[in-house]
Design goal:
Layout: H1 11-19, E1 31-35, E2 42-49, E3 56-62, E4 65-66, E5 70-74, H2 79-93, E6 101-105, E7 110-114, E8 120-121, H3 122-127, H4 135-148, H5 157-166, H6 170-179, H7 198-205, H8 208-223, E9 227-229, E10 238-240, E11 245-247, E12 254-256, H9 258-279, H10 283-315, H11 324-351, H12 357-360, H13 365-384, H14 392-403
Antiparallel strand pairs: 1-2, 2-3, 3-7, 4-5, 6-7, 8-10, 9-12, 10-11
Helix pairs in contact: 4-10, 9-10, 9-11, 9-13, 10-14, 11-13, 13-14
């Protein structure tokens, strides 16, 4: 239920609101406001001084329901607090990696933050076959720092448990539990998919071994409060330029398994890999860009692991952290989790609610079918073969083998 003082802001009301916040804009500034949100859950306002060099900000207001569905799907407004507090923690741990938060208003469930209009949503760039030379370093470092430094490895047990309590996020977690780990694996009403892949979807619904492994991964998501995870770290929640990377929208943040965030990033790179089967019909161009995407996958994990091990040596407080065998085992389990969660994320974006524009923007259903079939096949194998993983190159080899019909 919404707070009694809560109200959905109009563009005019948003301008009136920001004028009351000290230090944002000059008293007599001429302000222009546009609602620019294109996501599934929230309103997003862009407010700018009407001058050539005018200052600008973003206001994100949580709606008491899922925007993509409507009032029939109520949602907690506390997700605005979760997002604001997660952004501030992430910016402390990994400075400059997220938009700066200027103000949070609990009653209106909104956050005032840095405008990233100079950046674009990464998903759009990848669809256009753009290259981002610094992305792997930025996101690998972000993942290592935000995950390690909010875990039991770096925090004393009491502080860690207080953080778990701070980020209890049951309503948003339920969305993940349903849409990622449950609904895609049976004939749920929320599922939406291309009728041309019905055969592959029914095979997944009837695949007992696969569903057992999904159940294990879901159980781990439900019970393994390993670190503060972003919870929805796809390429639509990353804004980029050639030289900069900003992670946005952590309203699904909670304590959960580290591999869920890493797997989400990798899954979305692989979904883009599959989508170029329909977007890029020139074979040489397609293969070159797909090779680049697999290079990114390997580079992200390599940078993550290097930074994570460095943090382990410098900051680990856990008594057993001095055991090299424990460190190695921990990273191996993270890699295997990453495989599994990447696979879940891939399959859910093809079968379940809320697809990715990488695939959805392929207008020809038959061309889209090719990418969707590949995504389901890769996702399935990532889940089934995750416990055999020993190296990130096992993942990229698996992708190539699936595409070449060797698996």
């Amino acid at each position: 239920m919404a707070d009694s003082s809560y109200g959905v802001l109009s563009e005019l009301e948003t301008i009136k609101f920001v004028r009351k916040i000290p230090g944002l804009f000059a008293k007599n500034a001429n302000l222009v406001c546009r609602e620019i949100g294109d996501g599934n859950l929230n309103l997003v306002f862009h407010i700018k001084e009407d001058s050539l060099q005018g200052k600008s900000i973003i206001i994100k207001q949580a709606l008491p329901y899922a925007r993509v569905v409507g009032e029939s799907w109520p949602l907690t407004l506390d997700r605005a607090r979760i997002e604001s507090e997660a952004l501030m923690i992430q910016n402390t741990i990994c400075p400059g990696s997220v938009p700066q938060v200027y103000h949070y208003d609990q009653e209106l469930a909104l956050t005032v933050m840095e405008d990233l209009s100079t950046h674009i949503i990464m998903r759009k760039g990848l669809i256009g076959r753009k290259h981002y030379p610094y992305f792997a370093k930025h996101i690998g470092t972000f993942l290592a720092r935000t995950l390690f430094l909010t875990s039991d490895l770096a925090l004393d047990p009491q502080t860690k448990k207080q953080k778990v309590r701070q980020f209890i996020n049951p309503e948003m977690c339920k969305i993940t539990e349903d849409l990622v780990f449950t609904d895609p694996y049976y004939d749920a009403k929320t599922n939406q998919f291309n009728p041309l892949i019905m055969k592959e979807v029914k095979e997944i619904w009837g695949h007992v071994e696969l569903k057992l492994e999904i159940a294990k991964l879901k159980e781990r998501f439900l019970t393994h409060a390993q670190a503060l995870i972003h919870g929805d770290l796809h390429t639509g929640s990353i804004m980029v330029t050639e030289k900069d990377t900003k992670v946005i929208d952590p309203e699904f943040a909670c304590y959960g398994p580290m591999g869920f965030d890493i797997g989400a990033v990798i899954a979305n790179l692989l979904l883009n890999y599959c989508a170029h089967e329909g977007h890029t019909l020139d074979q040489n161009e397609r293969l070159q860009y797909q090779d680049y995407l697999l290079y990114l996958v390997e580079k992200i994990w390599t940078i993550f692991e290097k930074e994570f091990r460095s943090l382990w040596k410098e900051n680990a407080k856990e008594q057993f952290a001095s055991l090299q065998e424990y460190e190695d085992d921990y990273l191996l389990r993270l890699l295997q989790d990453t495989f599994g969660y990447a696979g879940c994320k891939m399959m859910r974006r093809v079968i379940g609610l809320a697809h990715v524009s990488d695939l959805e923007s392929i207008t020809d259903p038959k061309l889209r079918e090719k990418g969707e079939r590949l995504a389901l096949a890769i996702g399935k194998q990532l889940v089934l073969k995750r416990e055999a993983a020993r190296d990130i190159r096992n993942l990229t080899s698996l992708v190539r083998n699936v595409e070449n019909g060797k698996i």
